Amino acid sequence: xxxxxxxELLMFIHERLKETGVPPSFDEMKDALDLRSKxxxxxLITALEExxxxxxxxxxxxxxxxxxxxxxxxxxxxxxxxxxxxxxxVIEGSLGKLEPxxxxxxxxxxxxxxxxxxRIAAGVPIEAIQTHSHSISVPPELLGKGEHYALEVRGxxxxxxxxxxxxxxxxxxxxxxxxxxxxxxxxxxxxxxxKRLRKKGASIALEAANPAYETRIFGPGRVRVQGRLVAxxxxx
Amino acid sequence: xxxxxxxELLMFIHERLKETGVPPSFDEMKDALDLRSKxxxxxLITALEExxxxxxxxxxxxxxxxxxxxxxxxxxxxxxxxxxxxxxxVIEGSLGKLEPxxxxxxxxxxxxxxxxxxRIAAGVPIEAIQTHSHSISVPPELLGKGEHYALEVRGxxxxxxxxxxxxxxxxxxxxxxxxxxxxxxxxxxxxxxxKRLRKKGASIALEAANPAYETRIFGPGRVRVQGRLVAxxxxx
DNA sequence: GGTAAATGTTCTCTTACTGTTCTCTATGAG
DNA sequence: CTCATAGAGAACAGTAAGAGAACATTTACC
Lengths: 236, 236
Description:
Two copies of one chain form a homodimer. The model of chain A is unreliable at 76-107 and 123-129 (pLDDT under 50). Chain A is α+β, with helices and mostly antiparallel strands. In chain A, the strands form two sheets. In chain A, strands 4-3-5-6-11-7-8-9-10 form a nine-stranded mixed β-sheet, with no helix packed on it. Chain A has helices spanning 4-20, 26-32, 38-50; strands spanning 54-56, 64-66, 108-121, 134-138, 148-154, 168-173, 182-187, 191-200, 203-207, 216-218, 223-235. The longest helix of chain A has 17 residues, at 4-20. The interface between A and B is large, with 90 and 99 residues. Strand 11 (223-235) of chain A pairs antiparallel with strand 12 of chain B. Chain B binds a DNA duplex through residues 3, 5-6, 25-27, 35-45, 47, 58-62.
């Protein structure tokens, strides 16, 4: 999917992000790839974006993040991707050559009940979350350490992040998050909202994933992270 | 499913990707298969794409990736990754009036194991799915009647429906669907694809949720529904 | 033998990718 | 508001890569 240069640049950005948490500037990338001009970087970045490996905000300095890495890096086809564990199983019988899969009878395993604490507006911030409306059961492999709760998403502000109105999001309680994470943020101790977090120095930006909504920037102390998005469910 | 040549080429691409992370060019593939012309490679690639083994962007250099491998070298079921399901933690004290919910200890309930049958390209149509790569457990409340299986989505063609690359979709096996449903459709008994179904008289349209992809319309008998999308999971 | 799909080859044509230089503009700091 | 800086992008040149028509051969199969 990627040419050598595109691959090199993606790896560089990824490493940089892992180490410093801050994406490199065009000039830094230029030096890293040993080029004399940022223009080449610009095109590589465009290519990476087109191929779905990075996401970025145009005209914003260092505003990019790695969305996925090439399969050769982690996942692989032999083994499932690094998302959660899974239970080994022997299923699979002889399938007709073009017949759709025919799973064996579904075995039952342990799940975990997670409370749905109410709704949260992904769009305009609304009421905080405190009502425990019902519970959903969650596959254990999605749960890492820590305490979790679920929220039902209202609004369309995160639509470009693939989070739609009516989706249920699984949140891990935490008071810290990295720039780029999608979090439940409490603003001025009053409005809770689901947004992507950006750290800008001491300030914090909460950005929606919908051009119709503006990014809101707050000074230190005004935003408190209440949890980080770890999984999403949608029922059709 | 694959001819000898197609198989050889697929293996070569797969190896190359594993080793260097960069897909081979047509010329490199030509040399690897000991051919004198790229043209043959072009046809083999087209065949592999049609059959759903690779995904690619047309007119882009080295823009391809292996989506799945033939059953003969079917992915082994890797070892399950153990993950502590519970580890008590001490979290901050004093709760403000809008303090986030503090769920009671998570009760354990029954879940259901559903096999992930492989990947399906949401973008370029691909072929039938039958590799059982691993399993996920699914909350029982998402399962209705009938038989289910899961697929991992590759590609971005359903992006505007909030289905992203890497998402796992839960499919209920069925051979019927209503107009507007998102289905796994098998075209000409060959290519399987995840698309939105539209019935137009006797014909059937498969439409992507991404303006970059065209809606494809087929005459009666060419499209067979293999399942209907009933839920979606995403892990962050 | 007849047919269709898969292959192998040659050639041509177009487009993509890379490296570089320069210019222009949006943004954020002060 | 002004300035310095990072990002956007046009233009040029050379190389690399993909698309596909045309035709001959081979293979599998009825």
